[in-house]
Every structure is written in structure tokens, then in C-alpha cells.
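Minutes, project check-in

Agenda point 3 was the complex the collaborators sent over. CS summarized: two entities, 1358 residues total, and the question is how they sit relative to each other. Sequences were read into the notes so everyone works from the same version.
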Amino acid sequence: MTAGEGSPASDAELVELLRQNGIVLELDDLEALLDGVLAAPEGEDSLAWTALVSENPSPELVRVFQDLKARRRSAGSKKRPPIAERLAGVRAAMAERELDGFFVPRADEHQGEYVPKRADRLAWLTGFTGSAGIALVLEEAAAIFSDGRYTLQLEQQVDGAHFERLHVTEQPPAEWLLEKLPNGGRVGYDTMLHTPTQVEALIQALAPGGIELVPLDDNLVDHAWSAQPPAPLSPAIPHPLEFAGRSSEDKRAALADDLAKRGAEAAVLTLPDSIAWLLNLRGADVPRTPFCLSFAVLHADGALDWFVDKRKVTPALARTLGNSVRLQDPDALGAALDGLGARGAKVLADPGSAGIWFFRRLAAAGAKLLYAPDPCQLAKACKNPVEVAGTKRTHERDAVPLIRFLAWLDREACARADSGNPITEMEAADKLHGLRRETGKLRDLSFDTISSVGPNGALNHYRVTEETNRPLTRGEFYLVDSGGQYSDGTTDVTRTLPIGEVSVEMAERYTLVLKGHLALGRQRFPKGTTGSQIDALARQYLWQAGLDFDHGTGHGVGSFLSVHEGPQRISKVPNSIALQPGMIVSNEPGYYKPGAYGIRIENLEVVEEIDLPGRERPLLGFHTLTLAPYDRRVIRLDLLTGEEQAQIDAYHARVFATVGQHLDEADRTWLAAATQPLA
Amino acid sequence: MTAGEGSPASDAELVELLRQNGIVLELDDLEALLDGVLAAPEGEDSLAWTALVSENPSPELVRVFQDLKARRRSAGSKKRPPIAERLAGVRAAMAERELDGFFVPRADEHQGEYVPKRADRLAWLTGFTGSAGIALVLEEAAAIFSDGRYTLQLEQQVDGAHFERLHVTEQPPAEWLLEKLPNGGRVGYDTMLHTPTQVEALIQALAPGGIELVPLDDNLVDHAWSAQPPAPLSPAIPHPLEFAGRSSEDKRAALADDLAKRGAEAAVLTLPDSIAWLLNLRGADVPRTPFCLSFAVLHADGALDWFVDKRKVTPALARTLGNSVRLQDPDALGAALDGLGARGAKVLADPGSAGIWFFRRLAAAGAKLLYAPDPCQLAKACKNPVEVAGTKRTHERDAVPLIRFLAWLDREACARADSGNPITEMEAADKLHGLRRETGKLRDLSFDTISSVGPNGALNHYRVTEETNRPLTRGEFYLVDSGGQYSDGTTDVTRTLPIGEVSVEMAERYTLVLKGHLALGRQRFPKGTTGSQIDALARQYLWQAGLDFDHGTGHGVGSFLSVHEGPQRISKVPNSIALQPGMIVSNEPGYYKPGAYGIRIENLEVVEEIDLPGRERPLLGFHTLTLAPYDRRVIRLDLLTGEEQAQIDAYHARVFATVGQHLDEADRTWLAAATQPLA
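CS then shared the predicted structure for the full assembly.
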């Protein structure tokens, strides 16, 4: 909207307009709602939020809404106080509670990878915006801990005068505390943000030093953070059966049956993807993942109490939920747990993902606790046939922008580099995003695109910024790890490609990574096999050369949900969850040469039953979802076996046969060449 | 000795003869000692036991000893009462304690794979002689549980009228108990024979049914077993530094240091191989493993209390032990633990291997328990350079009888089969044993030879008996898994070979097993890698064909100690112990077609550091210890990659170069042909 289109509506005019449209909402409520909207991410559809006010707003109403939102944004944007002041505020709250320290983790109360603005206390307090970290505030000292991915970012974003910037495994918070508080002390933590598993480990580590962990049912940062945003508000909408494949009633009945069998009356659900899956709903409270932040209690009769801000629940969703899903005020959660406790109910809660607040509250009220994994997670991981069909469709659709992007790069990158107007990492990421948008189906990216060239590719979780934005340069590898959220699925794909000629070593190591990726992808395995059992298949050729990579080989992927989900995982870390039909996992070995280049090749695979003649065991294997060519320019044929060549050729043929028809002629010609048999 | 050589000495003559030889021993003591000797296995050297009486007995004295032993054996051999009577005895003891049931596990108080005759309560009570099982005796019912290996043996050895014969995982003891005691009850167990880990699992499983586990500090079977043998007596002798490579003082000092660092004053040692390793001693109390059964308490100052029957401690050993190893009466063990408790000491004990008796006694006395793995196990697993050199020597020596055996089979098996006088499994096992004896260095077999042909090969832990003894028949696979104990090491090797022509399928599956064995054997891996991470490398080709095998791929192997040792393991089961230089592991994938044939190929490998140019990680790999050809007649060349062919050829060349020179001409010619390059 441009400034000339009309002057802002007055308050009176606005209320009148709302009334004309059948919306009974006080101005205060509308403003509070807009603050919530502003605390949620914008997303691909900048008007989606208007569903919170009206199911079918008139264009005029939409214009007014947008205008109001813009005004509210300006009104709300306050300069943050300096770090010293923020720290002083937290320290004042500590003093009031007679605490010597306080933990400020990155996590929110859902232990999410993405947290809403309101919960990003770590960023507010320290300036650090990385996705993993924890700060510790003491009276005279403070420190922030993150991992190797973020060493540089910590240095750039966090003021060393206020915070020691430390590596979380080299100098863990507990060790630092023991050193700083040699005579013991009382250190507080917010019980909503720390799980029993985490607290248990801290208690064990701190006990020898006489340091007492003090559970707090509020957060000291919140007291100091005057302009803390409200909880995010985004429309919670139905995830229709054509995508979900199974009704919420059916899912709840199955889980309830299992609860009953285990003698439990109820299960506490704190993971937003569990609730989204169980209720067949999607939201937009955090970026990149279509969550609706809320809590729930599932009962052994299949009924569910959903503790959610009712403003988020769109009429369309409300119509699908049915009577046995009871909308409850978020503030009623504690009392509901007390009620379970009062009748001595046995309640399941997940010590690995739920805040210890739940366990303390339930135990205090008299409930019997059943410590067990969130029961939705495994059920959700095993996609039903409708979801599998959806994700196959999604991947065919998402292959088009990716292949168009690869063709564009091949045509442009060297020429642009030579002309002195190189493509940059940022431009490339934007280009790919735009091409995905052109599908007309993109709901969001599934994560911030990793678009990296040269040494930036060796930084495992690199995200390009204005400061680091590097031109695509001849002789370097360009690595792009990206994905989209679509109603029928979630994609995640990595390709690495040479800009012009690269070194012999680079091609050799590309081929070693590829050989591992192929070995894992073609492996069949008996039912019962876990991801940790097959992880080494992807590393064997790198290991043979004395090389390795320091991340997992594969993570679970949701169905229009989180791009990282459990409980399965292909990794060195032991994992007891067997791979099961319908599970989607990534297959993404890599190799990273610090300061030089990074290689990663990633497909998503869905686990399928294999009906092989002569098999003696129930057999599983992978069907590759991702459709995009490997880069033949850096495949060293002399390092491949005949089996590997045939595997690449068959895959490439499939890519062309499936995607070629959806491309224009130029791109189709490019793809035909890129997918020609190797020999 | 033949009957005519002399009449048995009278008691008076005997005492006189002993006195003449400077041995002051009452007749009663001598008889008790002989009973102990008879309760130990005989071993390769049937006179070794005489070291218990005299360091250098005269030939005459030896003759008398042997005579006495024979007399004592006849006197001691009583017919066992019928099963019903044995069961009645146990039930009477149960009634006295007001128990509804009693557990009779196979385990002894050292959780050993081999148990002494005295501790083989399960065999006495039920007749079952397998190496894994547990019985449960109730007032009106009884059951025995074992695993799939022993289904047939259970049926053959155990009377179904007295015992239900059950599969331990299909119908676990706890489930059976819950079913038989629907109203709850009291079930006793011997605290020496069950570890805290085992008891904890049972308590958890039984609690819902109101079944109480009652700890007993004695064993009800012992009350019923009137002719129970005494504890075994065999000479405990030094394991000299030339084989051990490291002094006991040094080992104890290192472990003591570690104990002190963990704030512990002492560690309880219950595993006989731990004590053998730590004190550099060997014994012969059980078959196949040169153990001396005893307990020990290691103190944080490096001193050790050794609770052992002093009659076992030979003067030669006593001279090596030094002052800080204090010989204690076995009966003094409880009081020693009480002493630790009385001063509130922190004591390490291994809940996975020590009887719960230790934990209960220590806790009752006031000790603080440190639950941790037996500290000797990991240290022992990492062989020092002297031990590694020893095991290499052992394997070169042991290769000679094995290759002579393979050559003999190749020359004889078909001819004998055709002549109607086939070689049998038993004859083959005896032949191999005899050839090993001819090395002049064999101390014992390292386990009972698995010599199996045709369908018997498909039985994983088959041991030939008179009843099952099968002739080596054309068209079948012969599988031989065997090993020897030598002063400088322990061997364990499996080869599978065709008798005449075998089917295409058999050769194909032999080749799949071999490919997995080769893949594992040649794999390099970064420091920190565990055996469970690389297990799938040995299975990948079988899996690809829908096949698998139901045992671990590799176990640790001792240095003139147990042929199965931990803590490392190559297996599907997650194991957190990284493979480390000096560890010896078996590499033994297999394939078993029930009712038809079995294939297993096993080498021992020692983990070594690999100094590969360009490596970016500390790198480890395997050096193959075992030296014996694979069977080229059943290797399907068309299924091998060039890398695999080269690997086999290089190994075969090494086998010939190393062992050929120690063979006579006929066998050398045979080996030359068997180790020719494949192509």
C-alpha cells in the first residue's frame, strides 16, 4: 500500500468499519491482537494473519488492517536499552530472590529450534541470535556458551566486556559455575525452559561444589525486559485430511488406547509438532515451521484439553475439532494438572522434552508420573500412505525450482564472475526462494537457506549475512542447502557444485562423499535396524581416507511440519529407534575443509518395505524423494564401482523422466545433459 | 598306569612317602585337596595339579598321587538321585523359608561363561548342560528357560514331566512367574548369583503382580545337593612378564590412581579374568579359560586383598606377588567389606558383573557405593605391545595345525566319504586338537571345538556329541570354529569349506559372508568409533540379499585368558566403548540356513593406529592376526570387486609367506595352491 491511497482511519471510523463487517472487537483488543501478530513471523502470505479477525475480509478491511498493523509496528519499535542496563535488570531480580546466578537458555517452553520473539531472551540479553546457546548471569560475571558453529558469531554479536564467550563442550556451564562460585551458591532457572533430563545433569555436575539449583516458576529476564513482545498470534488452521491422511479422532483413539494399556490416565503434550499432528492443524507462530504454540493434555478416553490462546483458533479449525477437543485458557493449565494430581492419576510426561515445571506441578498435586517419550513423536514419524503420496508430490514440485536454479547457476555463475558482477550467496538464495515461490504452492521455506561458497561452505550451519556475503568465485565449491514448506510436505535438499574448474582434491572428496551417500541410499536392511547401525555406511569411504564429518548423517523430516524431527536419526550417537516404513530421513554426508571449502550432498529418503524374492527377513530400504542431479563435473569416474555408476545413472534417468516435462526447453536441455549416463 | 604296576599304597605308607618328600600334609587334608582337584577340569597336562602338593615331585610321588586321585574319583562318584527327589529337596528348603519360589540360574558368583562343577546347580537340578539358562522352582510347578540355540538340547536333556521348557525371550521368567503366582508371592534368589542390574530388572517386572523378591545369602540347591562337589582346586601360577608385558605393581598403581581421582577408597573385583590380569597369574579352575576363581579388593594405595583358597597359591606365584598383595581367607571377605563400611569408605563395585550380595553387604555396613564398570576390564582389553607381539606369535604358531588340518580334510574327506568310512565331526575335532597338541605349546583349547557339517552347521553354538555326530558328506559345508590357549595368547578361528561340490547358492552366500568379513577387516575408522558403529559393514551384502545372521559380528579376546571378553563388542547392540589400539576382536559374520547348512568366517583382528598420509583424524584400523586361507573353491569371483580380490590375494600371500615355511612339503604344496591369486 502506498501513502497516497488514503489517510489512516480514525479510531471511530475503524470501529464502525469493523461493526459493518460483523466484527465485534474493542479497539484495545484489536491492538493487543496486532501486537501478537507482530510478535509472529510474517511468512510467505503477508495477509494470512487477517484470518484472526475475519474469515473473509473485504479488500477495504484488509487495507485498513494492514495500515493498522504498520502503525502498531512503528509504535511498538523501541530501542533496546544498552546491554549493561539489561544485565543490571536481571541482576536486580536475582538479588531480590537471593540468587547468586541465573540461567538464560535459548530454549523456549517447547524446546523448539525456532523460538518466538517473546521467548528469545538469550538474544535480548546478549545480542546473540544463533540457534543454540545458553547464558549464565552471576553478580559480578556473565558468560555465554555455544558450539563450534557459532564461535565467530559469538565474537561478532556479543560484547566481550559483558560476557565471557565460551565453547559449550570445551568449557561447559557447570564447570564455569564451579570455578566462579568456589564456595557454592544458589543459581536459579526457569522451570518451564529446562527439562528434567537437563536439570538432572546439572544437579549431578554442580552438587560436588555445593551449588544449589533453585527452581523458579517465572523468568527473571521477563522482569527486566520492559518491551518484551507478547506471545505470537497466528491463525491456527486445519490441516485437511487430503494431506493428513488420518483423522484426529483416529489418532487420539490409538494413542489413548496405548495410554490405557500402560495404566496412564493422561499424557502431557508440550511439543508443538505433536499437537499439530494430533489435531491436524497448522499455524505460523514461529518462522519456517507451521506450528501453533500451545500445550495439551490427552486423556485415556481420547478427549483432549487444548490450552491455547482462543484468538488463534480460526472458525475453520474450530469446526473440525469436535466436542472431545476442549479449548482451555492457557492460564488454566496449572489447575488442570492439579486436578489430575488430586485424583492420583498416572500421567505420562516426556522428561526429554517437557519443562520440569510439569513434573514438579504434577508430583506436588499427587499425580503418579510415567516418564516416557512423547507418544505422538513415533506415530507422527511413520507417515501414512496419504502423507507419503503428498511428500512425493511435494518433491516432484520442489525439484522444478531447484533444477531451474542449478541451470541458472551453470549458465550465469562463471560469466557473471568474469564480468566483475558476480552472483553473491545472498542473490543466489533469493533467486532460489523466488523460483520456489513461482510454484504458487510455497507456504514458507523449511529453514533459512544455506547458500555458501568457498570457505563459507566449510561452516556447518552458515547463514549468509550482509557482512559475510561472498561472491561465487571460479575454482570454488558452491554449497546450497534449502527446502520448502508445502501443504503436502516439507523438502530439504543439498547440492554442491563447482564454479568453473576446481582442484583434483575437491573432485576426489566430492566423489568420496557421494559414494557414502549412494551406499546409504541403496542399502536394504532388516526390520529393527536403527539409524545408528547404518550411519557408518555413509562415512566408510571418507574414513578410509582418514577423513570424516562432524554432524549426523540423517535426521527425520516432517510432513508440512518441522524439517528436523525425531525420534529416528542416522548418526554416530546410539539411537534405539528402529527405522520404520513411512519414516522420512535425510541422507546427507559431507566433508568440510576449514578455510577452504565444504561439500554436502543431501537427499530425503522415505523408508519402504522391500519385497525381494528370496529374502529371509522382513526387509526395508529407502525410496529417494529428492529429485536433482549430482554434479557430473566433479564425479571421479575412476573412484566409482560399476554398481555405483549404475546407481547414479538410474537416479539421473529418473530425475529427467520425472522433472524434465515440467521445465522449459532451455532448462530441459540443461537437465538432459546433466543427467546423461556417466560413461 | 596299568593295574600291574603296583598295589595301591596303604595310608601309612603314603604318609611316610609324603614325609620323605618333605610334605607335611595330613591324610584328611590330602583327600580334601584331591576332591578339589577332581572338581576342577583335567586340562591338557593331567599332572599339572600335582604342583598343589609339591613343586618338584619325584616320579614315584607323582605315580602315587595319580593313584590316589583315581581312588578318590571312584569313591566320590555317586549316582545322582532322580529329578523328583532333587526338586523335592529344593522345595523343602523353600518351605522352611516360607518361599513360593526360588531362582536357579546357570551363573556362578563370577558370572562366568564356564562354571565349576560345584556351581553347576542348574545342570544338577534339571539335567541341562547348556551354557545359558535359568530355572524357576515353585511349589507345584517348575520351568527352565534358555534361548533358541538350546531349544533342542532342552528337549533332549530336561524331563518335561518336571519342568516346562521355555524360550527365555518368548516367555521370560518374570512373565511366567506373574502367570503362575497371580496373587503374588515370595520368590527367593541367591544374592551371590544375581547382579544388581539383573535384580533391578526383575523387581520392576514383578512388582505389578505383587511378587516380592527375597534375597538369600545362601543357595537352596546347596541344601538339597548332598554330593555337591567342593570348590575346584587348581594351581594358580605366575603369568610371567615376558607374556604379561606389564608388572602387577604397575597395573595396580594405575588403577589405584584412578580410584583415588574418583574419590573411592577401594574397588571390589569379582571377575576372575580381572584378577588374573591384575595379578599376572593364571589358573585352571574351570575348563578352557585359565582362571583362578577368587575375589579381591583393590585399595586406592595400590594394595590388594586377595580372597583365595591358599592351597591354590603355588610357591612360584607367591614369590611374585610382593607384600602389597595380602592373601586372605575367602571366609574373611564379608568382614573386610564390613571394615570398609565401618569407616564410611566409598567403594567401587560393578552392578553389571558383581553379585548384589556385595552391594547389600557394603551398604549395610555403611559404605558409599560407586556404581561403575570393573576398572580392570577396559585396561585389560587394550593389550600392551608385549601382549600384541605374543598374540601375533601365537597366531603364527596356531596357523600350522589349522592349515595342516585343512589340508588333511582336503585330501581325505571325499575319499573317506566315498569309501564308506567317512570322517565324522568328532573325528575331525579330535584330529585338529591333536595337531594343536603337536605344537608342544598348547595349554588348553580356548573353547569346545565347533565341528559341524550340513544342517548341524546351522546350529549356532553346536557342540558335537555321540548322538549328533555326523559324517562329512559330499555336497555339504563343513564349519569348524576352534581355538587354542597358549602362554602367549588365545586363538579363535572359523573356516567353512565344501565337501566336494556344493550348490551355486551355497557358494554365493559364502561369498556374501566373505565380502562382509573383508569390508569390516579393511575398514579404517577415526578414534572414538565403537564396534556397534561398524557392525553393519559386515552385514551389508547379506542385508542387500534379504539375509542376516543372529549373532554379534565380533567379541573381544583375551591374552591367554577368556576367548570372550569385553568391554568392546562389534554388534547390533549399542555399545559405548570405543575401539582402541591393542584391543583384539573377532571378525566373524555368518549365514545359517536352518536344516541345510551354516557358513561362518572368522579372523581375529588387533586394533592398530594407522599413519595414513593426508589423514585429518587420529585413525585406527585392523591388523589381521589369524592366518588361514579362505576357501577359493566357493568364492564367486563375479561377485567380488577388484578391491576385494586384491585384499584376498594380499592376505593369502601373507598366509603363505608366514606359515608355509613351517609346513612339510605336502602341506606346503597344498597351501601354495590354496593361496594362489584368485584370478
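Noted in discussion: Chain B touches chain A through 31 residues (CB under 8 Å).
Follow-up: revisit at the next meeting once the mutant set is ready.
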